[in-house]
Amino acid sequence: MRDTGIGSVRGESTSVPAGFEPIVEVTADERARIAVGRAGVRRNDRFLVSTRSTGEILLTPLVSIPKRELAVREDEELRTSLLRGLADLTQGRVARRDDLLDGDQEERAPTAHSVLH
Questions:
Q1: SS3 content of the chain, % helix, strand, coil (to 5)
Q2: I need a surface site. Which of 18, 73, 75, 80 has the fewest CB within 10 A?
Q3: CA dihedral (61, 67, 72, 75) positive or negative
Q4: Is the pTM of the predicted complex or chain greater than 0.85?
Q5: Of 33, 65, 62, which Cα lies nearest the Cα of 46?
Q6: 16-30 b/e with 16+ CB inside 10 Å = b?
Q7: What residues of the chain score a pLDDT lower than 70?
Q8: d(CA 87, CA 79)
Q9: What is the DSSP string of 6-60?
Q10: What's residue 28's pLDDT?
């Protein structure tokens, strides 16, 4: 850790952990909020907030994904299949398959799609 020259904690000069750069000293407002825009934070950025017993606060950038998409991230086989299907789509290697519809096509009432195509 090295002295930042920015401020002091309990009468001692503050130090910054290796790999971090001091940006600016901030003061919490009446609602205990601090501005972190100078650190590159933008509107709607999300962070995991962690604290140490010393009072240090660590903000770790994160991205939230819908639960329904979690299966794709966790299942290698599903992810590979999905990526293969997307590649086929972008290469034009897909065709419409009306035979995959439930029930007999003749028994169904005509739809706008079936009339137009």
A1: 30, 20, 45
A2: 18
A3: positive
A4: no
A5: 62
A6: eeeeeeeeeeeeeee
A7: 1-14, 102-117
A8: 12
A9: EEEETTEEEEE-TT----------TTS----GGGT--TT-EEEEEE-TTS-EEEE
A10: 94
